[in-house]
Amino acid sequence: MGASVMKHAFLADGLPSEREIEAVLAWHDNNTHAAIGTLLDDIRHLRLQLVLVEGAMGRGMTRGWRPTYDRD
């Protein structure tokens, strides 16, 4: 990922911008339940991806680092 993409993907405070929220709602025709459902599906998918990566990577490759599944 390029630096400009990373800059926009991760804001300093970690909170989504107003523009991002509006884009999610617009994608779902302002249906908040559909937007939340899609975001929850994305979370489930990413957690599964973490489980798969954790099983595939060697401990030496990451110097003992393990992915976390909850926010700090």
Quick tags:
mainly alpha
Quick summary of this structure?
With 72 residues, this protein is mainly α.
How far apart lie the N and C ends? 24 Å
Rg (C-alpha, Å): 16 Å
- DSSP strand tally: 0
Structural class: mainly alpha
Order of helices and strands: HHHH
Shape descriptor: elongated
Structural summary, described in words:
With 72 residues, this protein is mainly alpha-helical. The chain has 4 helices and no strands. It starts with a helix and ends in a 10-residue tail after the last helix. 0% of the residues are buried.
Which secondary structure elements does this structure contain, and how are they paired or packed?
Blueprint: H1 3-9, H2 18-27, H3 32-56, H4 59-62
